[in-house]
Specification:
The protein has about 120 residues and is mostly helical. It has two domains: about 10-50, no CATH class; about 50-115, c-terminal domain of poly(a) binding protein, CATH 1.10.1900.20. The protein has six helices and no strands. It is rod-shaped. The termini are far apart.
């Protein structure tokens, strides 16, 4: 007797439609369109997992640069000074310090100035 694959097929369709839940129109209701939507979503997810790392690094650099410039230093000078004193602080930590703990960031900048031999900036009144 010929076996039929009704139950496994229905189970697979059910899994597939569960994954496209929340989509609009045919992407939610039609099998072929739902499959395409899942493939495309997977491609976007894969791409954006890598993009996220780049985007956050750019954000951290912008924040560090802004905080440095307030203290009369450039981002490149800060990074050069940190590498000179062999400091293990990464950009994520530095950006967090610049926002949450300005006094700690001031201490880091002062250490970098000392290592590079840069003078203190003139106080702006």
């Amino acid at each position: 007797m010929r076996t039929k694959s009704v139950v496994p097929r229905l189970r697979a369709k059910k899994r597939l439609f569960k994954r496209v839940k929340g989509s609009v129109g045919g992407r939610r209701r039609l099998l072929r369109t739902a499959k395409e939507a899942i493939i495309r979503a997977g491609v976007y997810a894969h791409r954006d997992r890598r993009r996220k790392k780049r985007d956050f690094r750019r954000l951290w650099i912008v924040r560090i640069n802004a905080a440095c410039r307030e203290r009369g230093l450039r981002y490149s000078q800060l990074i050069a000074g940190l590498s000179k004193i062999a400091c293990e602080l990464d950009r994520r930590t530095l950006a967090e310090m610049a926002v949450v703990d300005p006094s700690g960031f001031d201490a880091v900048v002062a250490t970098v100035r000392e290592a590079l031999g840069l003078p203190e900036p003139a106080a702006v009144a």
